[in-house]
């Protein structure tokens, strides 16, 4: 077929584009967008443009993965029983601060203020500095880790290294080594490896704050999000948690106090006003 004839044949305004789009209806949005992108390049090469009526489907944003309370309990047990001395300080600090794994690896000992219960994150995502907060529990864990850190640095003879977390070879830890640690902890805690990563701990931290009543602006600042739209995704997780609590409460049998009231026996007002149990994510 001559090039001129093929150019006319490939004209997207002749109805073939419409028929082609109708055949993509069962595919996922990401697949459809990839096919439209490929066709756009082909049409551009042929001297055509994609018609304005072509609508690219919006991609549904997947919710961040978080750990449930039971998974978190099993993880804590696995961490406490781990022979890796880095398991406890790394896991505790990530759950206490919501740090990105790259930010955790870049932490220097001078960045941490134990008295102020805070750490300075220098050059985070987008090259933005911010302050993260932690609890006394993190201080205790870090103080237990420091003698091991100093021993490793002495053995490496790199006495000028200021990294807070160092490997057994006396080098600054990297994200890959932390993910390998998470894989080992996942096996020990009977958690699928796909559900446990440094970012999972960051999401679990954020979700826990939301469940305890923290506002989005506070969570945004602690996580270092440049846009609050990124933080808003945690509202969807909060809504899911709300539904789970509601349906679990609906399945629960009525309390003894309410039963006695229904029978006319009366009961203590304090028992009637007992607060329903929450399902907070302990951090």
Task: Compile the SSE list and pairings.
Elements (H helix, E strand, L loop, with lengths): L2 H7 L6 H7 L6 H18 L22 H13 L5 H11 L3 H6 L5 E2 L4 E4 L8 E4 L2 H21 L18 H15 L8 H14 L4 H8 L4 H4 L1 H19 L4 H7 L6 H4 L11
Antiparallel strand pairs: 1-2, 2-3
Main attributes of the structure:
hpI Integrase, Chain A, mainly alpha, 3 strands, 54% helix, three-stranded antiparallel beta sheet, 14 helices, 4% strand, 283 residues
Q: Care to count the β-strands?
A: 3
Radius of gyration: 27 Å
Number of helices: 14
Residues in helices, as a percent range: 40-55%
* End-to-end Cα distance: 68 Å
User: Secondary-structure element order, as H and E?
Assistant: HHHHHHEEEHHHHHHHH
Broad structural category: mainly alpha
The poorly predicted ranges are 255-283
- The chain-level mean pLDDT equals 79
Major sheet strand order: 1-2-3
Question: And the CATH topology of one domain?
Answer: hpI Integrase, Chain A
Q: What is the CATH architecture annotation of one domain?
A: Orthogonal Bundle
Instruction: Summarize the biggest pleated sheet.
Output: 3 strands, antiparallel
**CATH H-tier superfamily of one domain:** Intergrase catalytic core
What oligomeric state do these chains adopt? single chain
In percent, how much strand structure appears in the residues?
under 5%
Q: What coarse outline follows from CA principal-axis ratios?
A: elongated
CATH classification, class level of one domain: Mainly Alpha
